[in-house]
Amino acid sequence: MRPILEIRDLSIHAGSEAHPIPLVEQVSFSVAEGSTLAIVGESGCGKSMTAMSLMRILPEPGVRISGGEIRFNGEDLVTASERRMQELRGNIISMIFQDPIASLNPIQTIGDQIIEVIRTHQDISKREARARATELLRSVRFPDAERRINYYPHRLSGGMCQRVMIAMAMAGAPKILIADEPTTALDTTVQAQVMALLRKAQTETGTAIILITHNLAAAAEAAEHVAVMYAGRIIEHGPVRDIFLSPAHPYTEGLLGAIPDKAEDSEEIERLTEIPGNVPRPGTLPDGCAFAPRCKNAQDRCRQERPNLSPDGNRLVACFFPCNRSIVQ
Fold it and tell me: pTM for this structure?
């Protein structure tokens, strides 16, 4: 299936042009209509920065896209005008942000906020937009939508605010939906409900979803393909089933090993693995592979050379010594 969105060698830098600090480097991926790509990794690995770049909402001028392409149906959004991006944002490409409560305007009712989004992209009356807003709230199973459409955000739970954000994101029937940590700070039951709503919306509209998450269980359930990021780069990319059942990169293996087993046996909990150390801060990357200081498989070559993202079966992996595989040259 032809990709609706293609990212090619995307790089993002902060600081001055004379002294640039790399935040994201040479990231490439694509997503087809009606499919879901999950981008996973620890906090600070570049997931959200990548997501914001797709909407061209980076905190410029301090942070900027310094290279690569973002192609929507062949059109390069990196070079698109701001006017063109305003036409696309919230209409063709929508985003659900990490903190739903902080993302909503506290001095506007949720109804007024959804209506504003609808009328920005559709030439309809306020009355028609209100009816559409109520319909959207019902579609995300927002309880008592007719009455609570007049509520201010502070009267809603985190889960209800997230439903409002999903309704707003789907107001323009977008072709691409970027969900940045959509289940953060929600309890397990509400997390499952939110993910079910995203799948429902996708089924009904054919929307392509880019799921940004550190929740590997959510990624495994929702996505067909997964890209694992570390220190601003994709280090493994391929079909979810293959990568989760048999990870190639030691970092991916470590992430999966840190997921608690469903069994409540205390001995099972003790078997969880830990990745020592932390993701390096931007501008402090070591020579060679960025993961080498934390990697159990690291050898001298890893500390001297940076591995490229190379084919390994039906996936790509950036590692000289993949888990249980022959060496990638």
Answer: 0.91
